[in-house]
Amino acid sequence: MIKVTERGEVENALYRYHSELASVILREVGDFSGRNIVEIGSGSGTFTLPLLEKLGANFDKFHCVDSYPGPYEYDKKILESKMIEKDKIVIHDVDAKEIDKILKDVDLVIGHEILCDLNLEQIREVMGSCFNVLRTGGLFIHSEFSPFALNESEKMLQIINEFSDEPISDTRWFSPTADELAGLSADAGFESIKVEYRKIPIKFLGEAAIEMVNRWKTKREFFDKYQEELEKVGIEYPMEQILYCRK
Q: Domains in the chain, please, with CATH?
């Protein structure tokens, strides 16, 4: 279990978490020689940088895609400040639903925690765009938190989600279930569909939990109602449900 109690520990803990997630995903992919990779929902690069580290030099171009809506507009500048090998990395300020309008013949499309921000119709549009942008035989991989909380600390994450300062859409759920993800990907035309469940234990307590709430652009109303409970149980990430499928 990665336990985080201080604000200054948050960044390193998140890097460790997403580095392990990237390792899990790339182990499942196996011998991957993809040349052209797209990450949808790159945000400020929380998952992007650990993924790039695990990939090493095993790509020609890495496309970071995000529309940076509302309270997330500053995340693009944060991501740009973290990029070192900029000759191989391109940042696109575009909605994931429209990547097939600017890219083609992609070997891998990968995302983390983006579909939970979308409603059913938007998810269908994103998956359709991802399918279109891939070459035949290309991979689509997406990791999403399970919507099923197994303890009070995991439930706290769902409560925080209900107090988003500016929701991106009229989301009907905290996250799609694995069955929903698999069904939607099949509807989009994907094949060889598989879902893997992986728990990477991490828990935020004390000041670290408050820092995480602030990072998620949460209404002050949340603290008015739940700060005492937050201090008691903290925040724990639920199980990751990782979708793998092929065009």
A: 10-148+175-199+239-246 (3.40.50.150)
